[in-house]
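Usage

Read records sequentially. Each one opens with the input sequence:
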Amino acid sequence: MPLSFGCLRNDVRQQTTYRKGGTRLFSSGVGLKMNDEKRMRGSWTSEEECALVELRTAGKDWVAVATGLRHRFGRDYTTDACESKWRRMQRNAAASSEEVAPVVVPSPKAAPGPAYDELVLGWNEWLGRKVKEIQVPQAIEKESRRIGVLCDLHCPFERRDVLAAFVANGPYDTIVLAGDLLDFLPVSPFIQERPASMRDEVQHGTWVLEALAQSACTVIVLPGNHGRRILKKLESAHLPADLMDMLHLFEPQFDLFKLMAKGLPNVEIMHEGRSVRDGSRVVTSFLVQLGDCILGHPDYSRKVRMQSVAGFREWLVEWKETLGLSPWRIVGMGHTHQAGMVFALGGAEMWLELGAAVTVEGVAYATRGKIVWKPPVSCYTTLTQYKEGESWYTDFNSVKQTIVT
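and closes with the structure output:
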């Protein structure tokens, strides 16, 4: 049953009209409180009284009591009527020398509702997910590390043959999933040729995370532009500005990807936010820096190949001090669905477009007559870094892009 705020309507002091003896009168919210209390008085059944005692002695406040009664009996209950009935029951009990169970008033800091683990169980049941123990590779201190990069799967339109080839080429020390794990098709601005529910997307995305978690010591999941489709949809619905502020404030607390990664201890979900330095790694918003390699998913693309990376790199130069970035030699980006590598700046840097792992069905919008997008190139990228002192440097000769046809 959708949440109703009927139990709070009497707290709003609004002017209301009613008739008495054929004369039209005006009443404020106070009058409504009195009328509701009279209407509810004497109409309680024994089952309702027992439920009232049960909820109140469980420490529920009056809003929770009224809501709980409404859910059980399908009637409207005001907070004033519930409190008034409770006090009458206490007075009657005192008059008849009957004992009433002590009331435990909840602390304002108490967090009502089921525990997080219970919610996760319900989540797994909704997905049809059978929770099993994942064998996570153990990190070993060494002077080299192998990194695998995959991006733009757009589940449930992922290419499983690309994922299978990527996993078979492991194991890896670190995997970077560089954006757009899910497509968020139900809130897409494009016409849907194939219906896909969020349950389908989350099921497929969870399977992908479980496969990757068993193939690397650490899996880093970056947000992509498709992950912001939900907030964009809400913004287009013209919700009140204060409500949108609350959604932006609390959105990281209700992270869909964190629920998907529950039970996968080596999967790190990155949030939008300011730069965070973690050893040799810098994480900020849509990018991660591993040693001298920056990988990201900017919402930016150009028609000419590699020009998107050039624009991304130019942005990095302007923001490097603000974000606390270290000097880099490799810049790679997803989002374009194209693949390629070039040496730039006289061979001092290597620029990469990271390809995609999405089927043509997942980019059907590109075939509707607007000749802007190119077909996706299915590939994944691998590279090896070596430690020198406290820094990690990439061996250019180790950078490899594998095309899956």
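Summary fields computed downstream for this record:
- Residues 1-41, 98-113 have pLDDT under 50 and may be disordered.
- The chain has two domains: 6-95, 128-403.
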